[in-house]
Write a structure and sequence with these properties.
By secondary structure, the protein is α+β, with helices and mostly antiparallel strands. The chain folds into two domains: about 60 residues; about 90 residues, no CATH class. It contains six helices and five strands; from the N terminus they run E-E-E-E-H-E-H-H-H-H-H. Helix 2 packs antiparallel against helix 5 and helix 3 crosses helix 6.
Length: about 170
């Protein structure tokens, strides 16, 4: 499973950059996921950083020198890359709301051994909207198939499998 919840030491979001600093053990380097806005998309990078609170300037320099470009807005009509995880999860939440499907129940069914909650999704959606996202029309079956495909492509096969079962029960 691709992680939806991590222990963050520091979160930065300005008009130019968004970053999450985390670590798993005290003796490990700090990991950062960094996004910077640019014309037509974002620059994205996952890397180590020297401390818990790097400067915005350092983050921007790192992401533009070492990161990769990813087009935005995030849309089910585009090819997904790993930097679009927040957009994909926001699209999943949107689909669940439109189709009156309980996202929390969906997550529990997909990952019964994990303590996932929908509380994380407010921050996830905020990030997706900061990056740029395009929500599909609610009744579009093609977009539903694209959502399932994107979930599988980005490592959320368990959710896609449970969602496929849910879709079969919808009117």
């Amino acid at each position: 499973m691709t992680s939806m919840h991590r222990k963050y030491l520091h979160v930065i979001r300005t008009s130019e950059v968004a970053a999450w600093i985390s670590h798993h053990e005290d003796d490990q380097p700090r990991k950062a996921e960094i996004f910077a806005r640019t014309q037509g998309g974002v620059q994205h990078l996952e890397t180590d950083v020297p401390d818990d609170n790097p400067t915005e300037e350092l983050l921007i320099r790192l992401v533009f020198h070492l990161g990769h470009f990813s087009p935005r807005p995030c849309s089910l009509d585009r090819q997904f890359d790993p930097s679009m995880t927040y957009g994909l999860l926001a699209l999943l939440r949107h689909w669940c709301r439109v189709h009156d499907v309980d996202l929390g129940r969906l997550l529990r069914q997909a990952y019964p051994d994990e303590s996932l909650s929908t509380e994380n999704f407010e921050e996830i959606v905020d990030q997706a909207e900061w990056e740029g996202i395009e929500y599909p029309r609610p009744d579009d079956r093609y977009q539903t198939r694209r959502l399932l495909l994107a979930l599988r492509e980005l490592g959320y096969g368990e959710i896609a499998k449970v969602l496929t079962g849910v879709i079969r029960t919808l009117p």
